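Box S2. Input/output pair 1.
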Amino acid sequence: MSRSFFPIVLILALFVTFFSCSSKSTKRPRKPVSAINVQPSKQNYVFGDKISVNVTTKLKDGELKAVQLFYNDQLLKEASETDLTVSGIELTTVGSVTLNVNAEKTDGLKNTRTKILNVNSDVVPQQMTYQVIENYPHLKTSYTQGLEYYKGYLYEGTGENGHSKLMKVNIKTGEVLKSIDLEDKYFGEGITILNNKIYQLTYHAKKGFVYDLNTFALVDSFTFASAEGWGLTNDGTYLIMSNGTNVLTWLDPTDFSIVKKLQVANNRGLMSNLNELEYIDGMIYANIYTTNYIVKIDSETGKVLEEINMEGIINLYHRNGDRIDHLNGIAYDSENNKMYVTGKLYPRLFEVKFISK
């Protein structure tokens, strides 16, 4: 071999080796790719609808080990098929329903796909209005965030930074019998009474406070995962809080862990802006923030059963120029079957009866 030919051979060998290595380095195992197809295909489903879900999984290489189909984290079926169909799936929850598919190859590579379905209630809410039975004085400086009746007295939590309080109030006179102020950095929100303690949320601080019912002494505090705290009530065992969405969350009152979550919807869609809450005999009444509506919610299903229009309740009790904010505040006297409502900066508290239109 001539001297001049040797460098050319060497360069060609290096060139072939380089591209051979490059080619090998790009041939990495691929993840499985699944697609979810739902029939019938709808923008909104209704509670009780039945659907069929087809899952197709493509493989670039290797072999499929398993495909798992989940409905709201509940495993429906597991198989090793690239074309999987599950029929007769009943939609048994309202709100946003999640279909998850986990696909795994025999080499351990996994991939996940998710599809969200919107499920409306199958109940058309009864349209209700109100009758005022009596009205009482209410501090017009109180930005009402939480309202609770307990053993003859009204307990109220108020908001706004620098003005947030917890108060015990004489219902008939509006006189404040006991009061404590929150630190200026806290915006007070919903309250509830359970096991001789008062629980109070805050708005953006992700923090709640626990007080002794009789002395208002602070005995504990807690944090919650939700970005915001809004309304608060209890079912006799657990705390139930709203956060401005369509989701209600049950909390254990001892360690404040999440017990369950419930989405709320009517026959038209998600019911968001759930605010001040009151639990009555298995039902949850909630103010819908920025509206004059109170809704009655089934605490087992999340279905809205009644929509109560409180329009005009404050019209005769304030003057032009008065600072009046939104309806907010529901309290129930179970012993005498009396319902009380008020609003942020309302000068009156109303005993009302909800009636059919």
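Box S3. Input/output pair 2.
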Amino acid sequence: MKKSALNPLVYSTEHGRICPGCGNPMAACACRQRQNALPGDGIVRIGRETRGRKGAGMTVITGLPLDQAGFVALARDLKKICGSGGTVKDGRIEIQGDHRQLLLAEMHRRGWKVRPSGG
């Protein structure tokens, strides 16, 4: 599917969301694969967020250079360690509750270069 200059398609009922960069469905986006191949600065950041959650905090892990299967497997292990729920969204692992110190130690034990983020 090609992107037209006159009609920039962003959604199709047949394919769902369409990438504005390459014009492919998001599942087959070539742009995102190139972006996800870049590992960033190589530092995993662990922080806490309450925004949009009515005051309930979540521990958020960002900066991991993993593919989707790697995110899901790591999130499953970390949720078991914390004894809490969570999810994987947009290249981030979100764990319910404030488990920053526990996850910081666990990620360091697994060999990641880890840094706390936020206040």
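Caption for Box S3: The radius of gyration is 17 Å. Strands lie at 11-12, 16-17, 44-49, 58-62, 86-89, 92-96, 114-116.
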